[in-house]
Each structure stands twice: as structure tokens, then as C-alpha cells.
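Two entries, shown back to back:
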Amino acid sequence: MAENMQVVKTENAPAAIGPYSQAVSAGGFLFCSGQIPLDPKTGHIVGETAGEQTVQVMANLSAVLEAAGCDLSHVVKTTIFLKDMNSFTAVNEAYAKAMGEHRPARATVEVARLPKDVLVEIDCIAVLG
């Protein structure tokens, strides 16, 4: 790994379930891997609906950001991956509640399948500092 890159890891978010890191800081930015709605303590999926799952996803992203010394207000870009675009409104409501007045750039896409067959996954890029 390059000298100016640092892996960020926290037990307050689910451990990576593959050969990747929860996040990597580089060049003044934090690149957070996609988070799914897993309880970091039990490893179980939280929530039956996409909206409920989004609440846990945002909590997991917040924990990773906190481990790097920042929070959701530092996020400059998110990508939301949905199992079903019909869930957009519910996911958007939970996302907006977590983000407060902060409005980073964002893309939302429907995908055929997500890890552990969850309904939503979100990744982000944040500015450090």
C-alpha cells in the first residue's frame, strides 16, 4: 500500500466480508466500501424493508466515518444500490433523515442482487478533516 494511504477499521461496523477494507484514506479523502444492514455485533441483517435496512446502513457508514475522525457532514458523494427501485422513496426518507440538511452528490441504481440478499447497500466518499 502506498505511503499516503491508510486502512480504516472499526468494530462498530460490520467487518469486511471479502478481500477489502471498510475504508481507505488517501489524498485527503476517505473512500468507504459499501455498507449493508448488518448488525456489527451479531452479524445478522437488521430490518425487513429497504427503509428499515437503510437506517442500519447509515449507522454502519457513520461508524466507519467516525473511526476516520469525520462524520456524515464530511460526505461528498454516495452511491445507493437498491434491489428494487420501487423502494426508492422509503430509502430516500431514511437516508435524508440520517443526512439532515447535508446534501452530497449521489447516484442511485437498481441491481440484480446484493451481498447476503439485502435490499440496500450504500458506499461513500468523504473529505477528511
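entry 2 starts here
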Amino acid sequence: MSHETTSAADDAVHRARAAVQSLFLADFASQSLGIEIIDAAPGRVQIAMTVRPDMVNGYGMCHGGIVFAFADSAFAFACNSYGDPMVAAGASIDFLAPTPRGERVTATATEVSRSARHGIYDVAVTDSNRQVLAQFRGRCSRLRGPTQSA
């Protein structure tokens, strides 16, 4: 790999990290969940959080809505990692194993496809042993600016 190629890749990673950090600073929902940004690159983000007592359902495991919100945050950061404003157009999740109280979970979002207007991202939510707890797929669309009236 040439120096120019390495430099361009480093610049892209730097821009992705800056875009994710900027979005995170304005994302009070993610902050309220105690989410930490672990790593970011173009189209890929890894975040983590610890399941607190106020996140647990009546069965003593993390509420599915919290797991969904956690995965959705990883998805949002990944699809916005290029600095272009993207919003969710749809998402689904499969819960594969319970997430106990006190567990430190990680969500890794990976770009499946991306165009100028749309994208698809997969998110794996894992526990501290790297067991997959949930699998999320999100579709995003470019956020349109306000319509100008004549």
C-alpha cells in the first residue's frame, strides 16, 4: 500500500470518527443509555454500554426496546459516518439470547450496501463473551433539507 493510499484511508477514518462524535454529542437518547463510542470508520461503528437496573424488564433481563435502541444507535452512527445526513427508513431485530442486568454489551454496525440516497446496515449485539444476543438490520435514507418555497 502506498503512502498516499494509507494517508487517504487515515483521512477517511478521521472524518468518520469526527462525524460520529459530532452526532453523538447531539444525541441525548444515546447518551442517556450510557453508550460509549469504541471505534468508528467509514460505514462501521462499534459502541458499548452496561445494562443498568433501570433497563431491566420483569424477567430480570434487558428490555427488548432498550436492546433495539442500543442497536439503532450503532446503526445511526454507522450510516452517518460519511458526514451525510441519513435517517432510518426501517429496521428489524431478532433477539437470540437474553441480556442480563450488569452485562457490558457491544454493538458492531457494518455497512452492507450504500448509495447516495440509501443504505443497509447490519448490527450484531454481543455480550462480554462475544455471544451474539441480537441481530439488527437497518435501512436508511438521505435526510432531505427543508423544501424551499418560491
